Amino acid sequence: MAQTETTLTTKKKSSLSEKTKEAISAYIYISPFFILFGIFGLFPILFSFYLGFQKWNGLGEMEYVGLQNFEWILTDQIFWTSLSNTLIMWVLGTIPQLIIGIILAYALNSALIKMKSLFRVAIFMPYVTSTVAVAIVFGIMFNNQDFGLFNVILGWLGFDPVSWGTSWWGVKIAISTMVFWRWVGYNTIIYLAGLQAIPNELYEAAQIDGATIRQKIQYITIPMLRPIIILTVFTSTIGALQLFTEPLIYIGRSFREEGITVVLYLYREAFTNLSFGPASAAAIILFIIIIIISSINVFIANRIGR
Amino acid sequence: MSEKTGSKKVSISKLFVYLLLVIAAFLSIFPLYWMFVMATNHNSVINSVPPAFIPGSELVTNFTNVINTIDFFGAIWNSLIVSVVTTIGVLFLCSLAGFAFAKFEFKGKNFLFVAILVTMMIPPQLGLIPQYFIITQLDWLNDLKAIIVPGLIDAFGIFWMRQYISSNVPDELVDAAKIDGCTNFRVYWNIAVPVIIPAFATLAIIKFMYIWNDFLWPLVVLREESSFTIQVALRGLIDNYVRDNGMILSGTFWATVPLIIIFLLLNRLFIQSLTEGAVKS
């Protein structure tokens, strides 16, 4: 009797300290993230906001200049060019990618098709290729010269060669094609996962009611796919606004105005011109633009398809 | 009669679907094939109209030129070290943190978890410039640590591990191990880790691919050739004044092949991991 009592109390005691122990362990287990994020994430972000109001070349003293950096960026014509380039390439690269992704996913999901996994692997392969490699290969395909692959194809079709790398639309089409090629298969597979989650009974019921294929797509597929469409629009938008590798590889160190993007502009200001103040201001402006566009996305997503 | 037209209709739409998929598959693979064709041809063949569409005989010559232009194997080695070390570190830290969030009770748990999720929404460029100066202050410029250590921050990984551990590691097992006198770390190591191997595979593929293909950050902090990752080194190929496309695409092709081979071997796991990760988050 006495013995059971003591085991009970020790158990109670140890379970109490067990709780504290558990909490201590938990804090230790999650602390690496917060320590590292503090050093390499949070502090740099706060410091960016500070640096946006300073004049600094990276070596000497910082000097508070108020809103001058922002003024400088917002009156720089090249910044606006970089912004409009980014938005144009966002539209050119993203919208066809998502539409064709849905079509391909629909085709892959069709019950009639054999060798599905083979097609899946082929279509997904571009995503495994690094962005740098994609930009190099397509950069050579979109060569200005007659022997560039796309100019050869244009020649076959009876058109004149295009100066892809130096013309206003040429650069944008080339870069958007790189983005399109690398990501369309990835989005296809995501849509495919979404399509496979739609219960077959819905289609069967519609079939019985005599629905056409178009009606099935319009009233079953698209609404059921809506959360996944929103997800892909969201991620591809954020990715497009951060476009950097493809234009840097394609247009090189010249930072040609036809292809400069906001992140490229930021990179040039910071690491080529060593104007760290304006570069930080550009980073803050980019952040604000991303927030605005994401909010518009969320707003539209909530409106549509209600 | 109507059955006949019905089956005809099916076969036409079937044909159309096949055609669509064949074209898509062709366009997906062609640039990779073309890269190989260029990697085996002399620059003069490449720069003629029409260009070569079948492999040539310059495979070795082009690759020798690559090795003479950039430190190809050194860069591959650096990429491998950076990707492997970061991935292993992330698997360990994220599963440990995910385990704490899934199975332990502590003050501020929900708040801290939401805080981690919020960090996922911050665009990485926002802190780019100060990050560069922190690396300079730490004297990590041209040091692979500059990629590895910040790479260990992975909010998605913690989220992913927490979800997986919550639904796959039974509470009873954790409690039983504790009653048996296991320390908290033992519970993690002996009970949780063996169960979450599939989640490790997924996260490993996502992380490895991300680090292997990353470009902007390595470009900023790796300035000396001896520290280049393969992506940064590839850029050295196109920066030359003489553009030898055969050489450029040879380097690009051989830098792409390892990942493609791993992908083909593990394609099911790859596709599932990379897309599942996106959908779940």
Automatic annotation (TrEMBL), chain A:
It is a multi-pass membrane protein. PROSITE patterns: ABC_TM1. Keywords: Cell membrane, Membrane, Transmembrane, Transmembrane helix, Transport. Residues 83-297 form the ABC transmembrane type-1 domain. It is found in: Cell membrane. Gene3D superfamilies: MetI-like. One of its GO terms (biological process) is transmembrane transport. The chain crosses the membrane at residues 26-53, 87-109, 121-142, 162-181, 224-244, 279-300. One of its GO terms (cellular component) is plasma membrane. Belongs to the binding-protein-dependent transport system permease family. PANTHER family: ABC TRANSPORTER PERMEASE PROTEIN, INNER MEMBRANE ABC TRANSPORTER PERMEASE PROTEIN YCJO. This is Carbohydrate ABC transporter membrane protein 1, CUT1 family. It comes from Gracilibacillus kekensis.
TrEMBL record, chain B:
Pfam families: BPD_transp_1 (PF00528). One of its GO terms (cellular component) is plasma membrane. Residues 76-266 form the ABC transmembrane type-1 domain. It is found in: Cell membrane. The chain crosses the membrane at residues 15-36, 75-99, 111-135, 187-212, 247-266. GO terms for biological process: transmembrane transport. It is a multi-pass membrane protein. Its main location: membrane. Keywords: Cell membrane, Membrane, Transmembrane, Transmembrane helix, Transport. Belongs to the binding-protein-dependent transport system permease family. This is Carbohydrate ABC transporter membrane protein 2, CUT1 family. It comes from Gracilibacillus kekensis.
